Amino acid sequence: MVGYAYAVLFRKRPAYRYTAKHSIYVHHAHLGRGVGRLLLQELVDVCAAAGFRQMIGYIDADNAPSLALHEKFGFARAGLLCGVAYRHGRWSDTVMVQRSLGAGATAPPPATAPGR
Ligand SMILES: CC(C)(COP(=O)(O)OP(=O)(O)OC[C@H]1O[C@@H](n2cnc3c(N)ncnc32)[C@H](O)[C@@H]1OP(=O)(O)O)[C@@H](O)C(=O)NCCC(=O)NCCS
Fold it and tell me: Which residues line ligand 1 (CB under 6 A)?
């Protein structure tokens, strides 16, 4: 396996059923070869086709590769969560990124929610 990506419901409460939260990981031996770009494009396409209207990602503020990748795919920085992670002996901030899919919030959702 060279990498994987997945999306889950952003929150379990029904009102959030059109918003997905995603993660993407590429094996360290395969970084910088376009795998992340392929995975994220596929994930965006699959989430849009499933009827999701928003995608949310949480990225460590020091993770320049992931921030750059998401920026290329149209994700905007939607918020900064300060000191929410503790690793390698220090606190880290997390950037919340977001992009819309399809009509986003400009039109009502379809009658059937994603995954139903
Ligand atoms: C973020 C990650 C998925 C990128 O995967 P990748 O296969 O190395 O990325 P790609 O080769 O497809 O590069 C796509 C874009 O990402 C950005 N990018 C990738 N590596 C980068 C680096 N070292 N520095 C800056 N930008 C980088 C660039 O914008 C790049 O576009 P370009 O090639 O046109 O310059 C990968 O670094 C990773 O898995 N990191 C560890 C896990 C992680 O942080 N996941 C994200 C949690 S939200």
Answer: 23-26, 31-37, 57, 59, 63-66, 68-69, 72
